[in-house]
Amino acid sequence: MDLSLFLPPLVACLVLVAIHSYLGLHVIAREVIFVDLSLAQMAALGSTVAILAGSPPDSPASFLYALGFTSLGAVLFALTRNTEKGPVPQEAIIGVVFVMASAAAILVADRTPRGGEAIKDILVGSLLWVTWPTIIRLAAVYAAVGIFHWVLRKRFLTISFEPETAIAKGWRIRWWDFWFYLSFGLVITFSVPIAGVLLVFSFLVVPAAIAFQFTRRHGTLAAISWLAGILASALGLWVSFHYDLPTGPVVVCMFGVLLLGAYLLRRALGLRAATLAPRVAAG
Fold first, then answer.
1. In the chain, is it the N or the C terminus that has fewer CB atoms within a 10 Å radius of its CB?
2. In this structure, are residues 40 and 188 in contact, taking their beta carbons and an 8 Å threshold?
3. Rounded to whole angstroms, what are the CA distances from 139 to 69, 110, 119, 247?
4. Is residue 188 within 8 Å of residue 70, measured between CB atoms?
5. Cβ neighbours of residue 14 under 8 Å, at least 6 residues apart?
6. Which residues contact 179 (CB under 8 A, 6 or more apart)?
7. What is the model's pLDDT at position 277?
8. What 3-state class would DSSP assign to 216?
9. Cα–Cα distance between 99 and 244 in angstroms, integer?
10. pLDDT of 161 over the 60 cut
11. Are 237 and 247 in contact (CB under 8 A)?
């Protein structure tokens, strides 16, 4: 195996895991599982509109289009947060946004010279061809987002895991949700061109879902989530390179295999699954 080809995708995966697996804990706790797909599709729609407007896929203009559309999604999801059980669950709104953004992206792509290829790139990304400058830029952005979440961790963790406490304290939930989703959207905007929509969703949800099967403690949740993401990424990349298979889809499938393995391990150990709900005990 040629390490010069294998190492950049592996490091890129580790960088992606570092931030996505943590954000995934919030997503599962909030019960907005498909918010990642929805925001990713909004970013994809923005990139497709940029191509239609004449901007190259990797240009600053394309990034700004993607970030702008993702920010619109962040505003919408913050405004539609239900602090009480409402007539329409937020997950339904998230699903509608995803479907509409997907349909709009297809319509816009149909008017671009390489519409089919653009849609394929959005779905599977270009992880295999990622470069070191791109990885460094990615790490810098994610580090800034990580610091932002660390500084405001008490607010974000309380709102995600103990929303009734945040409401009792009189916090402006929708205001804090906006900043959460905006930072989330920034991460997605950088992730989708590299990993694609499917793999970004796997990075976000699967490691967190594995962690929730074994614990409810915040620190342990993060540790298990990070380890699961690293293991699935490394194994998926090795299988992809060893058997000459498409990288993104193989890593996605490896995440699924690891999730199944975690479930079987929990059953074998006789552990009671942690409830995947927003009201999780603080660790």
1. N
2. yes
3. 23, 34, 26, 21
4. yes
5. 230, 233
6. 152
7. 43
8. coil
9. 33
10. yes
11. yes
| Nearest by Cα to 124 from 202, 66, 55 | 202
Q: Cα–Cα distance between 166 and 157 in angstroms, integer?
A: 10
Sign of CA dihedral 122, 124, 128, 132: positive
In this structure, what token pair is assigned to residue 156? 């974000």
Cβ atoms of residues 75 and 99 within 8 Å: no
* Cα–Cα distance, 245 to 194 (Å, whole number): 17
- Between residues 26 and 192, the one the model is more confident about: 26
Cα-based torsion angle of the residue sequence 55, 56, 57, 63 in order, rounded to the nearest 10 degrees: -50
Query: CA 21, CA 32: separation in Å to the nearest integer?
Result: 15
pLDDT at 13 exceeding the cut of 50: yes
Q: Looking at the predicted structure, is the pLDDT value of residue 87 above 80?
A: no
- Report residue 274's pLDDT band, with 50, 70 and 90 as the boundaries: very low
CA distance 226 to 217: 14
Sequence-ordered alpha helix ranges (H) in 31-114? 35-52, 60-79, 90-109
What b/e readout covers 166-178, taking b as 16+ CB neighbours within 10 angstroms? beeeeeebeebbb
Enter the tokens of residue 8: 């950049």
The letter for the amino acid at 28 is I
DSSP state at residue 2: -
- pLDDT recorded at residue 30: 87
- Residue found by looking up tokens 């923005």 in the block: 46
Per-residue DSSP letter, 59:
S
The answer to whether 223 and 18 have CB atoms below 8 angstroms apart is: no
- pLDDT tens-digit readout, 187-198: 988 998 888 888
Whole-angstrom distance between the N-terminal and C-terminal Cα of the chain? 42
